[in-house]
Structures are given as C-alpha cells and as structure tokens.
C-alpha cells in the first residue's frame, strides 16, 4: 500500500474587500457631504466678522455720543452757573432797589408832611391877608363917612387921609413881611427856620442884622470831635454823590444823631435856656468833609436864665 503524501497546507488567498475597489466613490461622497459644513463655517466667519465690525462701529458711535453728551452737559452746567450768578445779581439788585424805594418813600412822607405844613401856613397867611383887606376896607369906609361928615374941614380930612394911608402902608408892609415868611425853609423838626445863607455874602448880611450868632465850620471825618461855638460836632459819614451827610452833635451833655441830611437843610435842635432853635446849615458836601455854619439865638429864655441863676 502506497502512502500518498498529503499536500502541505499553504496560506490561503483571501479575497480583496469590496471597499477597496469602491474607495474613489466613497471619497467623493464624503467630500460632497462636508461642503455644506464648510460653506456654513465660511458664512459664520463672515457673519462674525461683520458682527465685529458692526459692534465696533456701534461702540465708536456710542463713545462719540457719550463725548458729545458730556460736552453738552458741561456747556449746560456752565450756562446754568451763569444763569444762577445772574439770578443772584438780580436778587441783590432787587434788594438794593427795595432799600432805595423804602428810603424814597420815607423821604416822600417827610416831604409831604412839610408840604402839608406849608399849605397850612399859606392858608393861615391868606386868612390874615383877607382880614387885613377887610380891616382896610372898613377903615376906608369909616374914612368915607368922616369925609362926608366933615366936608367943611378939609385940613382935618387931609390929616385923616394921611393917617389912613400910613395905616395902609403899614398893613402892606406887614403883608410883605408875611409873604417873605413863605421863602423861609422848614427845618427837620418841623419848625420854620431862620433865613438860609447860600453864600458868604448872604452870611455877612445875616450877621449884619444882629438877630442871631453865626459861627462857620469846616468839619472833617476824624476820630476827635470839633468844637463849634457852644456845640461839639462829629462827622460820621458823607455821600458826595447824593449830597447827604450824617453827624453827631453834642450839647448840654446830650448826643443827638442827625442822619442823611442834605445841603441847605436846617438841622434844628433846642439848647437849654433858649426858646428858639439852634440850626446847623451845611453849604457844601465833599468826601469825608462838610462846610457850613451854626446859627444860634442871642436871647435866652428869661425864666430859664432866672432858674440857672438860682
């Protein structure tokens, strides 16, 4: 029996997988399926870039708007500050005007009171003048009766006429003197003042009358008081623009303040032993300086003088 050797087994040939043969087709399919993703990625990148540019542009605009708004707020704040200052100035001016209005009203009230007194004096003088006219008419009527009754005695009649004329002249002189009183000034105490001297010539004329004593002064704003006649004067302040002044006068151990007086205004006060008022008249007002005179009565009150002697 022969033995036939069996064939040695060798490696078997494996069949090639089908995918190897179909590789190009699969690769093409894979590329086709990735294309939308790539396009989507490109679109997203472009969108993000556009969004970044839009965001940056919007940020720049917001920054510009913020700067513009800040500048506008700063300008408005400055304008508001200017308006506030103007309002403060207007309030201060209003307060000043209110003070001036109050002072003007006080001055007006004083002036109206003086005018009322002047009107009363004028009415009284008119009554006196009317009474004088009536008296004159009565005297003329009596003269006519005398003339009718005594026609035969022309000499006596002429004498009577001369006497009546003299009385008429006397009455007219009294009327003229009464009218001249209207030219006198009412002092700050409401008392009719003596005649006011506006010049040195006027002052010399008043001295020549011999009714009162006149002492001139040149008063400056200093710490010490200045003696003028029997008084002591102390200048407190002057307003050269408004022509007003304020001073203290010291007499009979009293200090009296005369405030906001004007040029040629009789500043009146009474000294012990005198019935008539002593007057201070300022003729010129300068800065921290005034000039004028003091007018004081010569005759003392008899009762006061007797009391002082006792």
Q: What can you see in these coordinates?
A:
The protein is 57% helix and 19% strand. By secondary structure, the protein is of the alpha+beta class. Among the domains are: 114-181; 200-302, Tick-borne Encephalitis virus Glycoprotein, domain 1. The protein has a four-stranded antiparallel beta sheet, covered by helices on one side. It has a four-stranded antiparallel beta sheet with strand order 2-3-4-5, with no helix packed on it. It is elongated and about 180 Å long. The model is unreliable at 16-22 and 178-183 (pLDDT under 50).
Number of strands: 8
Query: What is the N-to-C succession of helices and strands?
Result: HHHHEEEEEEEEH
Query: What structural class do you assign from the helix and strand content?
Result: alpha+beta
Q: Give the rounded overall mean pLDDT.
A: 80
Overall shape: it is: elongated
**Fraction of residues in H or I helices:** 55-70%
What is the rounded Rg? 58 Å
CATH class wording of the domain at 200-302: Mainly Beta
Describe this structure in a few short sentences.
The protein has five helices and eight strands.
Blueprint (SSEs and pairs):
Layout: H1 18-21, H2 23-149, H3 154-181, H4 200-209, E1 212-220, E2 226-228, E3 231-239, E4 244-251, E5 254-262, E6 267-269, E7 278-286, E8 289-297, H5 302-309
Antiparallel strand pairs: 1-8, 2-3, 3-4, 4-5, 6-7, 7-8
Fill in the keyword field for this structure.
four-stranded antiparallel β-sheet, 310 residues, alpha+beta, Tick-borne Encephalitis virus Glycoprotein, domain 1, single chain
């Amino acid at each position: 029996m022969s033995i036939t050797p069996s064939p040695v087994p060798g490696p078997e040939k494996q069949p090639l997988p089908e995918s190897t043969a179909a590789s190009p087709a699969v690769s093409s399919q894979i590329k086709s399926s990735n294309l939308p993703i790539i396009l989507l990625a490109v679109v997203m990148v472009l969108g993000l870039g556009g969004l970044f540019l839009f965001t940056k542009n919007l940020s720049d605009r917001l920054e510009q708007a913020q700067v513009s708004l800040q500048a506008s707020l700063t300008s408005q704040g400055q304008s508001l500050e200017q308006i506030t200052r103007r309002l403060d100035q207007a309030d201060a001016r209003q307060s000043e005007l209110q003070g001036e209005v109050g002072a003007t009203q006080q001055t007006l009230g004083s002036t109206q009171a003086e005018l009322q007194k002047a009107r009363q004096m004028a009415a009284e003088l008119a009554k006196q003048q009317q009474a004088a006219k009536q008296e004159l008419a009565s005297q003329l009527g009596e003269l006519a009766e005398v003339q009718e009754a005594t026609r035969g005695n022309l000499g006596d009649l002429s004498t009577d006429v001369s006497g009546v004329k003299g009385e008429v002249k006397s009455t007219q002189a009294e009327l003229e003197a009464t009218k001249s009183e209207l030219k006198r000034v009412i002092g700050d105490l409401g008392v009719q003042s003596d005649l006011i001297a506006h010049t040195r010539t006027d002052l010399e004329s008043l001295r020549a009358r011999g009714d009162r004593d006149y002492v001139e002064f040149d008063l400056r704003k200093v710490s010490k008081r200045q003696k003028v006649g029997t008084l002591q004067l102390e200048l407190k302040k002057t307003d050269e623009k408004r022509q007003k002044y304020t001073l203290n006068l010291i007499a009979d151990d009293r200090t009296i303040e005369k405030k906001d007086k004007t040029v040629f205004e009789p500043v009146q006060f009474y000294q012990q032993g005198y019935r008539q008022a002593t007057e201070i008249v300022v003729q010129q007002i300068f800065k921290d300086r005034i000039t004028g005179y003091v007018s004081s009565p010569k005759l003392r009150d008899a009762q006061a003088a007797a009391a002082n002697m006792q």
